[in-house]
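Subgroup meeting minutes
Present: P.N., E.W., G.H.
Scribe: E.W.

1. P.N. recapped why we're keeping a running log of single-chain structure predictions: easier to compare across weeks, and new members can see raw inputs and outputs side by side.
2. G.H. added today's entry (372 aa).
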Amino acid sequence: MKIYRLIVPLILTFAVNYPSISFAQLSSEELLENREAERERRIEDLENLRQIKAAPKTAADVLELLKERAKTKIEEKRKELLRKKKFSVGVTAGYESNPLNDGNNKGDSYNENSFTFDWTPTFSPTLSGNFGYSLYNRMYFDQNIINSNTHTLSGFLKIIPFKSGKFSIEPGVKKEWSLYPFDESSVFDQWKTYLKYTYMIDQRWSHGGKYDYAYKTYATKNARNLSATDIDGLDKKDYRNTAEWWLKRQIGKYSLKLKGKSYRNNSNDEYQKYDDYDSHDGELSLSAAFLKDYKLYVIFSSDFEVKHYRKRASDDNVARSDRILQYRLNNYYTINKTLSLNYSFSLKNSNSNKSTGEFSNITNSLGLTINF
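Output recorded in log:
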């Protein structure tokens, strides 16, 4: 406890006093893309924690796990697994040192509310699924131009094709609607399809990968021609192909994970091929579970991203290139089966040969989640 009393004030002091950098504003959709990445990381963190808690720890646990698997053959158990559902409601309060990433460098506080519903049926010992709906609503106190609501319908199947149970594949699909109450030009809907795999080499080593394809259509923003004039009747559309791979080493209650991710974004906006670019990201994370029943779960991660635009001009009249370094500290504390707390700190620095790509942002947030 004494350690936390020392660390928390240091983090908060650093967040308030970190030097600012002057730069131009990012687009609303770019900011929302960052938020979506944060949510995906949070979902991944919680899935890792679930796996740690569920993993057998002793020979008796292994025997008990085998007994549970045998019970799934019973008809009543099967019906119960088919009816399994999850609800969660979350409230988060946060502060960003520079949410707009502009020359004013004005910090702002925000509230984020979330609701998720998941139906998680188990059809057989080798086939299960997850089908759900989620809503995320973020509201800033002063800079409401970037307020957003994101609705998502999603579904995937988990297939375990071999008796060993070490290998699984997950085909899935998502439909997202992102709304901006104060910026109609950034409103869009998006389809995503993906295929994910996981392979457990043994109780210590595992690896996995994912490929997804995303198709985004803007509601009111038109594509532009070579002279930057809107093309009437042609909605702006983006297409993205993403591939990632990771390797994880479990060491008792600790785990070390290395992940690589690359994607190519293409758009029908012809002006400077404005949204045609490639991104390559490498991430290293260390996580640990503490206290009885792993009530406290802590993840520290760092990643470096290089983003190359194919034709968008920089300030030097060459193709734009960004280099982004991020540090994150995420903490999850389980109070009981219903309530959990989370605290997150992140530092993001971006260097670019274009002024709009030069920025720094620090975020602190504290959230409460209720699970049903």
